[in-house]
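Handout, section B. The chain below has 187 residues.
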Amino acid sequence: MPRILKRLLALLCLPGAWASWLTLPLIATILISVVWAKMGMNTLIGWEGQVPVLGRALTVNSLYDMQWYIFALLVLFGGIWALRDDRHVSVDFLSLMMSPRQRLWVRMIGDLIFLLPFCAIIAWYGFAFAEVAFRTAEGSTQGGLNARWLIKAMLPLSFALLGLMGILRALGTAIQLARGDLSEDIQ
């Protein structure tokens, strides 16, 4: 695969690498929310006036919302990284029966026929999904986080990046096949 494509693929993996650092705050929010809930308390910190995203207080429910926001970011952006490194789900018993050339063809066709349309559909409808949440100022009704559109906007963004990953990977695979390079490593 050409060096420029490898660099572009690495660039697309940056959000996943950054999101991976959110594992530490995820663990912290889980521990704090468990301890606070066990103590029978709900509000960690309160303040006067509205703060964007948090509202009037940081509560156990805010921490629960943060947990699923962080988990969503890990899954959405980590999936891009997993695809680049071939750490996604595959049907190995079929793959093992194929030659390297056949595996490359399956990868390229799979990226163009299956991955790309799926990503386009999710990005298209995900944008509308996030837009409605933004227009209606959707937030938690249980005292959690207020700006739900922020996490919903990550859905079309991550799938657009995943689709771009599929296009670049298919292009790189086509170049490999044309050159007769049968190595399956794209890193």
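Note. Residues 10 and 187 are 8 Å apart (CA to CA). Compare this with the example in section A.
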